[in-house]
């Protein structure tokens, strides 16, 4: 089943508790943490994640676009995140960090920027619960989907299948009704959607519609046959 993770980067930051409740049918709530160093934008941190965790029953999927995730990522687990994603480009010791996140009780996820290939990290995949392929340059919401990432999604799915892993494959950036089917067909099964959800008149209905689209596309995808 395809999972839809609305990104609060596209929500009204003055009404985060209400915006979280508006998508309570979602699988996860995607929380973009940016430090204005790793990416040229500044968003929110540990205190807001703690507050969000108290405001919603939807589990939090924290995407850390920050320097020194080895130091900071464990604090997001302690703040209540059910899944924590660090960027491999910023991590000093990705295997150790993934193991620490898991040991603290959260799902460990690793993100790749568009120009970062998956192949050098094949041996790390068993240490992870999810891999995130950015389909835009990280830092800002509302960007156009990069079609050139589709082959990378396919190659990643092939590596996951090759090793027989139960590894979720997430895409983030420009995911909408017009792009989600291509992502699902290529091998993604977790979809971060920002403006496609929060820009809709009924965010909860948008989540359901995107999930149905992705699930239908997955059912006929070559990679999913035999699953």
Automatic annotation (TrEMBL):
Q: In which pathway does it act?
A: Carbohydrate degradation
Pfam families annotated for this entry? Ribul_P_3_epim
Q: Does the keyword Disulfide bond apply?
A: no
The cofactors named for this UniProt entry are: Co(2+); Mn(2+); Fe(2+); a divalent metal cation
Catalytic activity annotated for this protein? Answer: D-ribulose 5-phosphate = D-xylulose 5-phosphate
The alphabetized UniProt keywords are: Carbohydrate metabolism, Isomerase, Metal-binding
Q: How is the cofactor bound?
A: Binds 1 divalent metal cation per subunit.
Report the superkingdom from the record: Bacteria
CDD domains per the UniProt record, alphabetical: RPE (cd00429)
The active site of this protein is located at 32, 172
Gene3D superfamilies (alphabetical):
Aldolase class I
The enzyme's main class, written as a single word, is isomerase
InterPro entries per UniProt:
Aldolase_TIM, Ribul_P_3_epim, Ribul_P_3_epim-like, RibuloseP-bd_barrel
Summarizing the function annotation, the protein's role is: Catalyzes the reversible epimerization of D-ribulose 5-phosphate to D-xylulose 5-phosphate.
**Family affiliation:** Belongs to the ribulose-phosphate 3-epimerase family.
Name this protein carries in UniProt: Ribulose-phosphate 3-epimerase
């Amino acid at each position: 089943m395809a999972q839809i993770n609305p990104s609060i980067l596209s929500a009204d930051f003055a009404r985060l508790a209400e915006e979280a409740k508006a998508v309570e049918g979602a699988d996860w709530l995607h929380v973009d943490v940016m430090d204005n160093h790793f990416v040229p934008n500044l968003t929110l941190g540990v205190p807001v994640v703690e507050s969000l965790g108290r405001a919603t029953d939807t589990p939090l999927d924290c995407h850390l676009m920050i320097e020194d995730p080895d130091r900071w990522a464990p604090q997001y687990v302690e703040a209540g995140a059910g899944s924590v994603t660090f960027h491999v480009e910023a991590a000093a010791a990705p295997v150790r960090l993934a193991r620490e996140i898991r040991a603290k009780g959260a799902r460990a996820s690793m993100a790749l920027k568009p120009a970062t290939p998956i192949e050098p990290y094949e041996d790390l995949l068993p240490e992870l619960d999810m891999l995130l392929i950015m389909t835009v340059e990280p830092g800002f919401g509302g960007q156009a989907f990069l079609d050139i990432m589709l082959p990378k999604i396919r190659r990643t799915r092939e590596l996951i299948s090759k090793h027989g892993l139960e590894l979720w494959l997430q895409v983030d950036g420009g995911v909408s009704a017009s792009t989600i089917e291509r992502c699902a067909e290529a091998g993604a099964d977790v979809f971060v959607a920002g403006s496609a959800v929060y820009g809709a008149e009924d965010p909860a209905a948008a989540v359901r519609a995107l999930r149905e689209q992705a699930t239908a596309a997955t059912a006929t995808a070559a990679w999913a046959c035999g699953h």
